[in-house]
């Protein structure tokens, strides 16, 4: 019987429902299959249909955790090490929030890698020679309208440097930066004396930090637009200014949190001050930090418990199920969706 040739459109549709590991194996079938799998059409369709969410656990190495496989009974869970070859002697790997399953990580000073933990692909961002000054802020994000991933660094002197993955080049942006960075709040809080992460949170084609206006004229969320390459401001909720601890995401909504008062606020409608909603958490843990939020609304926290750092899922606001990662002490957790988005982006 002669082999049946399937239309390319049907192959793309079938592949878009498969796990990433299977798709990666099919790259070896033939050159035509490799072309189909690396085509942006399949990448985008697969991303829109991918239901699988995992955790990237970060200390001096990277570990991948699949919460669907470990169940919800709590306890010590194994971590699958990733990219050890990139982190020799590194005290702490810095990781930016994921965009479409793609991370930007800094395994050592001034080295930036784009990394997909699902496919294990990585690509180093080329270095650049800044005019002057140390890094004040940075962030990684995706702009859907121009289909481009960008990495942003703001240096002393308020110079803004932007790397475009599509163009694979850096440029200096001449935009105003009317903010003070002394009390900047980005993702997360310091653990075990580690440096505070001044990494922005990506959402809706912008990167967000909590900053003071110049001359301390108020505190705002500063949003850098990756398309227009300009800053705009969003208002914070009332009564959260003094002890604000961090900024993050709840699904597709910005949130800010206070680990002292054990509460956080969610901006239900982007850019609308009146949509901020305060949520008080249970007292099962003290000083918990919202770490990542899954699409199914299960919230993930980092907490200090029995002299160890642990992360927990909270399903209904009253019950937490604890997990400690085997062999890992102090760590951060980032949620990501499985995708075939490649750092060798075209």
TrEMBL record:
Cited InterPro entries: F-box-assoc_dom_typ1, F-box-assoc_interact_dom, F-box-like_dom_sf, F-box_dom, SCF_F-box_component
SMART domains: FBOX
Gene3D superfamilies (alphabetical): 1.20.1280.50
Pfam families referenced in this protein's UniProt entry, alphabetically: F-box, FBA_1
Chain ranges of the F-box domain: 1-46
Highest taxon of source: Eukaryota
PANTHER family according to UniProt: BNACNNG10540D PROTEIN (PTHR31672), F-BOX PROTEIN CPR30-LIKE (PTHR31672:SF13)
Protein name (Swiss-Prot/TrEMBL): F-box domain-containing protein
Organism: Acer yangbiense
């Amino acid at each position: 019987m002669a082999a049946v040739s399937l239309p390319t459109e049907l192959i793309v549709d079938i592949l878009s429902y498969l796990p990433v590991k299977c798709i990666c194996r099919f790259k070896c079938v033939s050159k035509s299959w490799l072309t189909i799998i690396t085509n942006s059409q399949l990448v985008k369709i697969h991303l829109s249909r991918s239901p699988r969410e995992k955790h990237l656990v970060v200390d001096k190495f990277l570990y991948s955790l699949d919460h669907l496989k470990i169940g919800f009974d709590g306890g010590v869970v194994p971590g699958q090490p990733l990219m050890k070859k990139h982190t020799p002697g590194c005290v702490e790997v810095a990781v930016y929030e994921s965009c479409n399953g793609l991370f930007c990580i800094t395994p050592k000073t001034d080295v930036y890698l784009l990394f997909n933990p699902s496919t294990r692909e990585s690509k180093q961002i080329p270095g650049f020679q800044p005019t002057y000054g140390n890094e004040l802020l940075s962030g990684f994000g995706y702009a859907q309208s121009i289909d481009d991933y960008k990495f942003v660094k703001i240096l002393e002197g308020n110079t803004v440097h932007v790397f475009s993955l599509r163009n694979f080049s850096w440029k200096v942006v001449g935009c105003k930066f009317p903010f003070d960075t002394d009390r900047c709040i980005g993702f997360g809080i310091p653990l075990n004396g580690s440096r505070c992460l001044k990494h922005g949170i990506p959402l809706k084609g912008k990167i967000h930090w909590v900053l003071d206006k110049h001359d301390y004229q108020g505190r705002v969320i500063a949003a850098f637009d990756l398309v227009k390459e300009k800053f705009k401001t969003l208002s914070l909720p009332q009564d959260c200014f003094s002890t604000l601890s961090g900024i993050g995401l709840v699904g597709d909504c910005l949130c800010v949190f206070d680990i002292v008062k054990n509460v956080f606020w969610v901006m239900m409608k982007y850019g609308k001050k009146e949509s901020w909603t305060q949520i008080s958490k249970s007292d099962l843990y003290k000083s918990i930090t919202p770490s990542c939020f899954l699409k199914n609304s299960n919230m993930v926290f980092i907490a200090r418990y029995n002299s160890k750092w642990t992360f927990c899922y909270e399903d209904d606001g009253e019950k937490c199920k604890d997990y400690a990662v085997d062999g890992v002490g102090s760590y951060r957790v980032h949620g990501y969706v499985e995708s075939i988005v490649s750092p060798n982006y075209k």
